[in-house]
Amino acid sequence: QESGWVRRLAGYPGYESPGSLVVCRESGGRAHVAGGDAGGRIHLPPMATDEARLSLAHEYLHWAFRRHPVARDERWIEGMARLLVLGEEGQ
Predict the structure, then answer these.
(1) Which of 29, 33, 44, 66 has the fewest CB atoms found within 10 Å of its own CB?
(2) Which is it for strands 32-36 and 21-25: parallel, antiparallel or unpaired?
């Protein structure tokens, strides 16, 4: 999945390939990204398939753009996640 995202995102200012990321299944809570420059972890609670894919893409984007201001733009992040996963343009 990631390689298609990398090709699509490579031209965006501020994009950095996250390198090694680990996806961790959680028993509860909400999706989030954690880790330092050496590597990161995306934590995902149980959820339906499309919801899980959107959450994974959303957190991936936060990590990939972590050094760029767009990483704090939830509207952009969510719109791009929807575009990557569902092929939908954001609102």
Answers:
(1) 29
(2) unpaired
Q: Where are the domains of the chain?
A: 2-86
Packed helices 2-9 and 49-64: angle between N→C axes, nearest 10 degrees: 50
Is the pTM higher than 0.70? The answer reads: no
Task: Assign 33 to helix, strand or coil.
Answer: strand
The sheet carrying 32-36 orders its strands as: 21-25, 39-44, 32-36
Tell me what percent of the residues of the chain surpass a pLDDT of 70: 85
What is the helix (H) or strand (E) element at residue 43, kind and residue range?
strand 39-44
Q: Among positive and negative, which fits the CA dihedral 18, 80, 15, 59? A: negative
